[in-house]
């Protein structure tokens, strides 16, 4: 029987206004669904921490201008170490704390969720299993057709180029189940987009 996810409904509603940046209203729900699947492989992980962290991890982009996001965060230099990456993490901690406090989560949960948000893109190595699961969930959505379409806009690429970019990310997955899911989804996306012909 699928897990009851209604315990997160209030968080979704409180965070939704902050998802209207950088296609996060698409990215976050898809990443959340991947996190649910990935958690099935790791019963020892903290479901609340992982699911709240993936739900809130990118809401900090709301506080940054979209042109700045695309230029600094996706199209120039070392994008993972750009100023906007650090800023969106800091803003994510600030907004995530507000959302979780408003929706009644404990200080202990808030601290664990915010520890993951703060550094989810820029920290070189994950700190623990929950962090690893969130990092993989954050990447998995991009292997779907929808994620590829969004990625084409962000990076100014064709679908074939974006699929090739995503293939290069496969070694960076933190968990074997995450990598296997990404490989399977990439193959499906390439087939649907006729990448072997174009």
From TrEMBL:
Molecular-function GO terms, alphabetical: hydrolase activity
Keyword Hydrolase listed: yes
A Pfam short name: HD
Signal peptide boundaries: none
Gene3D superfamilies per the UniProt record, alphabetical: Hypothetical protein af1432
The entry's keywords: Hydrolase
Protein's name in the database: Metal-dependent phosphohydrolase
The organism of origin for this protein: Pararhodobacter marinus
């Amino acid at each position: 029987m699928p897990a009851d996810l209604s315990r997160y409904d209030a968080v979704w509603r409180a965070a939704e206004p902050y998802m209207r940046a950088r296609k996060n209203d698409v990215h976050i729900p898809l990443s959340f669904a991947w996190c649910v699947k990935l958690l099935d492989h790791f019963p020892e992980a903290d479901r609340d921490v992982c699911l709240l962290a993936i739900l809130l991890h990118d809401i900090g982009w709301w506080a940054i201008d979209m042109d700045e996001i695309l230029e600094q965060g996706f199209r120039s230099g070392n994008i993972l170490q750009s100023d906007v990456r650090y800023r969106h993490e800091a803003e994510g901690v600030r907004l995530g704390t507000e959302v979780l406090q408003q929706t009644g989560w404990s200080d202990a949960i808030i601290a664990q969720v915010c520890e993951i948000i703060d550094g989810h893109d820029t920290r070189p190595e994950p700190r623990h299993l929950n962090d690893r699961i969130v990092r993989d969930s954050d990447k998995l959505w991009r292997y779907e057709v929808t994620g590829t379409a969004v990625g084409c806009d962000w990076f100014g690429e064709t679908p074939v180029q974006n699929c090739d970019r995503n293939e290069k990310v496969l070694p960076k997955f933190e968990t074997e189940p995450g990598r296997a899911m990404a490989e399977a989804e990439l193959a499906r996306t390439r087939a649907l987009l006729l990448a072997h012909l174009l």
